[in-house]
Backbone:
């Protein structure tokens, strides 16, 4: 049950981050404008990404060879930010769950190639920020 709930919360967080990008708003501003507050885990993810956006983008850009964050498709960028936040700031969430969920989101909402790109980048990030659990 928790897995399904977290999966749904990640998907909702991705939608909200994507909406923020599309509207040129801060993710926190999108949350404030919602008529119904999303799942607490989704709120924590969106808020966390918003609060640490510059740090997350710097990590992503450093690991994305020959890619700037701005050049990435919106959905891929949002997935990477979401998963990078979890890797950096949510030690309660297993590394494997973060990686597999991010790859699944990329395959579902972007392309097969995006799934491979997301997996490679996040695996490198996990080895860096979670050396004991990245395998």
Residues:
């Amino acid at each position: 049950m928790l897995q399904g709930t977290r999966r749904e919360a990640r998907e909702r967080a991705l939608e909200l981050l994507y909406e923020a990008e599309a509207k040129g708003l801060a993710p926190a501003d999108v949350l404030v404008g919602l008529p119904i507050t999303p799942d607490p885990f989704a709120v924590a993810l969106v808020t966390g990404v918003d609060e640490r956006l510059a740090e997350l983008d710097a990590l992503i850009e450093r690991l994305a060879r020959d890619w700037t964050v701005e050049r990435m498709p919106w959905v891929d960028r949002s997935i990477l930010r979401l998963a990078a936040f979890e890797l950096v700031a949510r030690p309660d969430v297993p590394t494997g769950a973060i990686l597999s969920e991010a790859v699944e989101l990329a395959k579902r909402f972007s392309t097969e190639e995006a799934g491979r790109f997301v997996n490679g980048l996040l695996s490198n990030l996990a080895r860096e920020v979670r050396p004991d659990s990245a395998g």
The mean pLDDT is 92. The CA atoms of residues 37 and 116 lie 33 Å apart. The chain has one domain: 2-129. Residues 2-129 form a domain with the N-utilizing Substance Protein B Homolog; Chain A fold (CATH 1.10.940.10).
